[in-house]
Specification:
globular; about 375 residues; 11 strands; Spore Coat Polysaccharide Biosynthesis Protein SpsA, Chain A; three-stranded mixed beta sheet; about 15% strand; alpha/beta; five-stranded mixed beta sheet
């Protein structure tokens, strides 16, 4: 493995409080309800799925602290830019309209959006895909995430997934497991390892080490799965989760992914501070490969004190600004910078938790 090769970072980000974006979301939801709203997944349209509680700011600070040698950062958004984001040659804002075909927009399903990110022009072969609620928690050693022939992944400690078809009331990752296994069973020619056996478990919600060439290959190998998830407006219970499950499960079946254990923590904003998991993050800070802050407050107001507690805790952990933030003197401006990168704009698209720690059953991904 070439240790000198850049490893880029891709984030998805949304500001759910933006009035223009909210009107677009409301109109899309009304149209969907009139057609087939019953197909929406649980929690597909709650405020917590789209709320910005400054997680991205602190995730970038964690990136700066624990992986300062990272490559280019790509921030994929729906025509939005964080007010605190400064101008830096190492970061490019990618608008949905530059990456995805116009007829697929708007979409409010991260599974849909993430199915396109490997198409970002200039993206490195090896990259991390991160939701903005995922944070590196210790110095990043690339050998913990990539090996010469592929990538590593970790299982979650959620209960085993039961055999059988997808279930409308099940969470997205359990249905994703079932659908990926179903596809592999229906396409045995796509499984290279003769002794591969399915594992009925979900993957941990982590920084996703990815290889662009694998995504490109799968887009041609399983076009029906990509087409299915790319048809959604909001997350839908019977559509695949490409990046969070299918890519990894196919990679395991073909010898380009290996499982390993990670030290990590899940944090829930819907719990009290003491029981949320944040205490574990604080106590083990610098020793956890990663942690995830899951917004389980659903439709709670933006001034809910539990959200403030999370921001305060993150500020205490990551008090030093990243290179991507405006200086303190200009942080109050809400106008986005005129240019956010020196790279060319993207062309439009044409076509484990440790044994003593258990993740809660309210994790929503």
């Amino acid at each position: 493995m070439d240790s000198s090769e850049a490893v880029d970072i891709v984030y998805l980000w949304v500001d759910g409080s933006d009035p223009v974006w909210r009107r677009k979301r409301q109109a899309a939801h009304q149209r969907l309800n009139a057609a087939h709203g019953a197909s929406m997944a649980a929690y597909a349209n709650v405020e917590g799925r789209f709320r910005d509680n400054d997680e991205l700011r602190y995730s970038l600070r964690a990136l700066e602290r624990f992986f300062p040698q990272h490559g280019h950062v790509y921030l994929v958004t729906d025509g939005q830019t964080p007010a605190w984001l400064g101008e830096h040659a190492g970061l490019t804002v990618v608008d949905h309209r530059e990456l995805m075909p116009a007829h697929t927009l708007p979409t409010f399903d991260s599974c849909h959006i993430e199915s396109y990110i490997h198409r970002i022009p200039g993206l490195s072969e090896r990259y991390f895909y991160c939701n903005d609620d995922v944070f590196f928690g210790a110095p990043v050693q690339l050998a913990d995430w990539f090996w010469e022939g592929g990538v590593y992944a970790g299982w979650s400690n959620e209960p085993a997934v039961s055999h059988g078809p997808m279930e409308q009331g099940a969470d997205a990752l359990r249905n994703a497991c079932r659908q990926s296994i179903g596809w592999l069973d229906a396409n045995p020619q796509a499984v290279a390892l003769p002794h591969y056996r399915h594992t009925l478990k979900t993957f941990s919600h982590a920084p996703r080490p990815m290889r662009k060439s694998v995504l490109m290959r799968l887009e041609h190998l399983a076009p029906e799965l990509f087409a299915s998830v790319r048809s959604t407006v909001f997350r839908t219970w019977d559509k695949p989760t490409i990046v969070s499950d299918f890519v990894m499960r196919w990679s395991l079946a073909n010898g380009v992914a290996r499982m390993r254990d990670y030290a990590y923590a899940y944090v829930s904003t819907g719990q009290t501070h003491a029981s949320s998991g944040m205490e574990r993050v604080i106590q083990r800070f610098g020793d956890l490969h990663f942690f995830c802050i899951n917004d389980t407050l659903d439709n709670a107001p933006a001034d809910d004190p539990r959200l403030l507690q999370m921001r305060q805790a993150l500020q205490a952990l990551f008090a030093v600004q990243s290179r991507y933030e405006r200086t303190e003197g200009s942080a109050g401006s809400c106008s986005p910078p005129a240019s956010l990168a020196k790279r060319p704009r993207v062309a439009p698209c044409t076509g484990s938790e440790e044994a003593h720690g258990q993740p809660p059953n309210w994790v929503r991904l």
